[in-house]
UniProtKB/TrEMBL annotation:
Belongs to the ribonuclease III family. This is Ribonuclease 3. It comes from Sphingomonas mollis. The keyword Amino-acid biosynthesis does not apply. Its cofactor is Mg(2+). The gene is rnc. The active site is at residues 61, 133. Mg(2+) binds at residues 57, 130, 133. It is an enzyme of class 3 (hydrolase).
Length: 238
Protein backbone atom coordinates (compact mmCIF):
# COMPACT_ATOMS: atom_id res chain seq x y z
CA UNK A 1 0.00 0.00 0.00
CA UNK A 2 1.25 3.46 -0.88
CA UNK A 3 1.21 5.36 2.43
CA UNK A 4 1.75 8.63 0.62
CA UNK A 5 -1.64 8.47 -1.12
CA UNK A 6 -4.36 10.47 0.65
CA UNK A 7 -7.51 8.39 0.97
CA UNK A 8 -11.01 9.40 2.04
CA UNK A 9 -11.44 9.56 5.82
CA UNK A 10 -13.55 6.47 6.37
CA UNK A 11 -13.41 4.37 9.53
CA UNK A 12 -11.82 0.95 9.22
CA UNK A 13 -13.09 -2.05 11.16
CA UNK A 14 -11.54 -0.73 14.40
CA UNK A 15 -13.09 2.72 14.05
CA UNK A 16 -9.90 4.53 13.05
CA UNK A 17 -10.15 7.20 10.39
CA UNK A 18 -6.93 5.86 8.87
CA UNK A 19 -5.42 2.40 8.54
CA UNK A 20 -1.94 3.98 8.69
CA UNK A 21 -2.17 4.67 12.44
CA UNK A 22 0.75 2.41 13.46
CA UNK A 23 3.06 4.03 10.90
CA UNK A 24 2.00 7.51 12.03
CA UNK A 25 2.56 6.55 15.65
CA UNK A 26 6.11 5.37 14.96
CA UNK A 27 6.90 8.50 12.96
CA UNK A 28 5.43 10.80 15.63
CA UNK A 29 7.34 9.35 18.57
CA UNK A 30 10.45 8.04 16.83
CA UNK A 31 9.71 4.37 17.33
CA UNK A 32 6.83 1.95 17.61
CA UNK A 33 5.62 1.68 21.22
CA UNK A 34 6.02 -1.72 22.84
CA UNK A 35 2.34 -1.61 23.77
CA UNK A 36 0.09 0.12 21.25
CA UNK A 37 -3.10 -0.30 23.29
CA UNK A 38 -2.70 2.88 25.41
CA UNK A 39 -2.18 4.92 22.25
CA UNK A 40 -5.29 3.45 20.70
CA UNK A 41 -7.14 4.44 23.85
CA UNK A 42 -5.63 7.95 23.72
CA UNK A 43 -7.17 8.38 20.27
CA UNK A 44 -10.59 7.04 21.30
CA UNK A 45 -13.44 9.46 22.01
CA UNK A 46 -16.16 8.61 24.51
CA UNK A 47 -18.68 8.38 21.68
CA UNK A 48 -16.75 5.38 20.33
CA UNK A 49 -16.01 3.34 23.45
CA UNK A 50 -16.17 3.46 27.24
CA UNK A 51 -12.40 2.87 27.29
CA UNK A 52 -11.55 6.33 26.00
CA UNK A 53 -8.86 8.99 26.38
CA UNK A 54 -10.11 10.65 29.57
CA UNK A 55 -7.83 8.95 32.13
CA UNK A 56 -4.75 9.38 29.94
CA UNK A 57 -5.70 13.01 29.32
CA UNK A 58 -5.75 13.55 33.10
CA UNK A 59 -2.21 12.19 33.34
CA UNK A 60 -0.89 13.90 30.23
CA UNK A 61 -2.17 17.28 31.37
CA UNK A 62 0.03 17.03 34.48
CA UNK A 63 3.04 15.77 32.55
CA UNK A 64 2.74 18.58 30.02
CA UNK A 65 2.41 21.15 32.81
CA UNK A 66 5.55 19.90 34.55
CA UNK A 67 7.62 19.79 31.37
CA UNK A 68 6.55 23.23 30.14
CA UNK A 69 7.17 24.76 33.58
CA UNK A 70 10.63 23.18 33.70
CA UNK A 71 11.41 24.39 30.17
CA UNK A 72 10.40 27.97 30.93
CA UNK A 73 12.36 27.93 34.18
CA UNK A 74 15.47 26.98 32.18
CA UNK A 75 14.91 29.37 29.28
CA UNK A 76 14.12 32.51 31.27
CA UNK A 77 16.33 32.44 34.38
CA UNK A 78 15.87 36.14 35.12
CA UNK A 79 12.07 36.29 34.94
CA UNK A 80 9.98 36.34 38.15
CA UNK A 81 7.25 33.84 38.86
CA UNK A 82 4.51 36.12 37.58
CA UNK A 83 6.08 36.44 34.14
CA UNK A 84 6.77 32.72 33.94
CA UNK A 85 3.14 32.05 34.85
CA UNK A 86 1.97 34.23 31.97
CA UNK A 87 4.16 32.32 29.55
CA UNK A 88 3.02 29.00 31.01
CA UNK A 89 -0.68 29.84 30.78
CA UNK A 90 -0.26 30.83 27.13
CA UNK A 91 1.36 27.49 26.23
CA UNK A 92 -0.81 24.84 27.89
CA UNK A 93 -4.29 25.98 26.87
CA UNK A 94 -6.62 23.58 25.13
CA UNK A 95 -6.43 25.72 22.01
CA UNK A 96 -2.64 25.43 21.82
CA UNK A 97 -2.77 21.69 22.47
CA UNK A 98 -5.31 21.44 19.65
CA UNK A 99 -3.00 23.41 17.35
CA UNK A 100 -0.17 21.00 18.10
CA UNK A 101 -2.51 18.05 17.51
CA UNK A 102 -3.43 19.39 14.07
CA UNK A 103 0.22 20.02 13.23
CA UNK A 104 1.26 16.43 13.93
CA UNK A 105 -1.76 14.95 12.14
CA UNK A 106 -3.96 13.70 14.98
CA UNK A 107 -7.21 14.38 13.09
CA UNK A 108 -6.61 11.60 10.58
CA UNK A 109 -6.43 8.92 13.28
CA UNK A 110 -9.19 9.73 15.78
CA UNK A 111 -11.69 7.08 16.81
CA UNK A 112 -15.08 8.76 16.88
CA UNK A 113 -18.65 7.56 16.99
CA UNK A 114 -20.82 8.44 14.01
CA UNK A 115 -22.75 11.16 15.83
CA UNK A 116 -19.54 12.78 17.07
CA UNK A 117 -18.12 12.78 13.53
CA UNK A 118 -21.35 14.26 12.21
CA UNK A 119 -21.23 16.95 14.91
CA UNK A 120 -17.73 18.02 13.88
CA UNK A 121 -15.78 16.59 16.82
CA UNK A 122 -12.92 15.78 14.45
CA UNK A 123 -12.01 19.48 14.41
CA UNK A 124 -13.09 20.43 17.94
CA UNK A 125 -10.44 22.21 20.01
CA UNK A 126 -11.81 20.48 23.10
CA UNK A 127 -11.44 17.02 21.61
CA UNK A 128 -8.10 17.59 19.87
CA UNK A 129 -6.63 19.29 22.94
CA UNK A 130 -7.66 16.43 25.19
CA UNK A 131 -6.34 13.83 22.75
CA UNK A 132 -3.00 15.64 22.56
CA UNK A 133 -2.66 15.48 26.34
CA UNK A 134 -3.75 11.82 26.33
CA UNK A 135 -1.00 11.00 23.81
CA UNK A 136 1.55 12.70 26.06
CA UNK A 137 0.26 10.61 28.96
CA UNK A 138 0.52 7.41 26.94
CA UNK A 139 4.05 8.23 25.77
CA UNK A 140 5.13 9.09 29.33
CA UNK A 141 3.85 5.69 30.53
CA UNK A 142 5.56 3.96 27.61
CA UNK A 143 8.96 5.66 27.56
CA UNK A 144 9.36 7.75 30.72
CA UNK A 145 9.80 11.41 31.55
CA UNK A 146 12.96 12.01 29.49
CA UNK A 147 11.29 10.76 26.31
CA UNK A 148 8.17 12.80 27.09
CA UNK A 149 10.38 15.87 27.53
CA UNK A 150 11.99 15.34 24.11
CA UNK A 151 8.59 14.95 22.46
CA UNK A 152 7.05 18.03 24.12
CA UNK A 153 10.04 20.23 23.30
CA UNK A 154 9.92 19.13 19.68
CA UNK A 155 6.14 19.46 19.35
CA UNK A 156 6.01 22.86 21.09
CA UNK A 157 9.17 24.17 19.42
CA UNK A 158 8.76 27.73 18.17
CA UNK A 159 5.95 28.48 20.59
CA UNK A 160 7.98 28.78 23.78
CA UNK A 161 10.25 31.57 22.56
CA UNK A 162 7.77 33.32 20.28
CA UNK A 163 7.56 36.37 22.58
CA UNK A 164 10.44 38.52 23.84
CA UNK A 165 8.22 39.51 26.75
CA UNK A 166 5.80 37.27 28.57
CA UNK A 167 2.39 37.56 26.89
CA UNK A 168 -0.32 39.12 29.04
CA UNK A 169 -3.60 37.27 29.23
CA UNK A 170 -6.43 39.34 27.69
CA UNK A 171 -8.54 39.12 30.86
CA UNK A 172 -5.67 40.46 32.98
CA UNK A 173 -4.94 43.18 30.44
CA UNK A 174 -8.61 44.26 30.39
CA UNK A 175 -8.79 44.36 34.17
CA UNK A 176 -5.63 46.49 34.31
CA UNK A 177 -7.01 48.84 31.64
CA UNK A 178 -10.26 49.28 33.57
CA UNK A 179 -8.41 50.04 36.80
CA UNK A 180 -6.03 52.49 35.13
CA UNK A 181 -8.99 54.25 33.46
CA UNK A 182 -10.99 54.55 36.65
CA UNK A 183 -13.66 52.18 35.35
CA UNK A 184 -15.55 49.37 37.04
CA UNK A 185 -13.98 45.88 36.88
CA UNK A 186 -15.05 43.74 33.90
CA UNK A 187 -18.01 41.46 34.50
CA UNK A 188 -18.47 38.25 32.49
CA UNK A 189 -21.83 36.63 31.78
CA UNK A 190 -22.64 33.41 29.92
CA UNK A 191 -25.45 34.31 27.55
CA UNK A 192 -25.72 31.08 25.57
CA UNK A 193 -24.56 27.47 25.61
CA UNK A 194 -25.18 25.24 22.61
CA UNK A 195 -23.80 22.20 20.81
CA UNK A 196 -23.36 18.56 21.86
CA UNK A 197 -21.51 17.56 25.01
CA UNK A 198 -18.28 16.72 23.18
CA UNK A 199 -18.25 20.00 21.23
CA UNK A 200 -20.04 22.69 23.26
CA UNK A 201 -20.15 26.35 22.27
CA UNK A 202 -20.28 29.08 24.91
CA UNK A 203 -21.18 32.68 24.15
CA UNK A 204 -19.99 35.12 26.80
CA UNK A 205 -20.55 38.83 27.26
CA UNK A 206 -18.07 41.05 29.10
CA UNK A 207 -19.02 44.54 30.22
CA UNK A 208 -17.28 47.43 31.98
CA UNK A 209 -20.33 48.96 33.63
CA UNK A 210 -22.35 50.75 30.97
CA UNK A 211 -19.22 52.11 29.32
CA UNK A 212 -18.53 49.28 26.86
CA UNK A 213 -19.22 45.60 26.24
CA UNK A 214 -18.36 42.80 23.82
CA UNK A 215 -19.38 39.23 23.09
CA UNK A 216 -17.46 36.19 21.88
CA UNK A 217 -17.92 32.46 21.45
CA UNK A 218 -15.57 29.62 22.38
CA UNK A 219 -15.40 25.89 22.97
CA UNK A 220 -15.46 26.35 26.74
CA UNK A 221 -16.22 29.11 29.25
CA UNK A 222 -12.59 30.15 29.67
CA UNK A 223 -11.97 30.31 25.91
CA UNK A 224 -15.10 32.40 25.37
CA UNK A 225 -14.22 34.79 28.21
CA UNK A 226 -10.71 35.23 26.82
CA UNK A 227 -12.03 35.97 23.33
CA UNK A 228 -14.58 38.43 24.74
CA UNK A 229 -11.89 40.22 26.76
CA UNK A 230 -9.69 40.46 23.67
CA UNK A 231 -12.58 41.88 21.64
CA UNK A 232 -13.39 44.48 24.30
CA UNK A 233 -9.75 45.47 24.61
CA UNK A 234 -9.63 46.13 20.87
CA UNK A 235 -12.83 48.18 21.14
CA UNK A 236 -11.69 50.43 24.01
CA UNK A 237 -8.20 50.85 22.57
CA UNK A 238 -9.37 52.37 19.29
Amino acid sequence: MDLGVRRPLEPDRRGFLSATFPDWLAATFGRMPADIAPFERAMTHGSQAAANYERLEFLGDRVLGLLVAEWLWELFPNEPEGQLSKRFNALVTGAVCAQVARTIGVRDHLRLGKQARDDGAIDSDNVLGDVMEALIGAWYREAGLDAARIFVRRAWAGRVQSHDKAPQHPKSALQEWAAASGRRPPEYTIIDRSGPGHAPRFTVSVAIGTFASAEATGGNKQEAETAAARALLEKVST
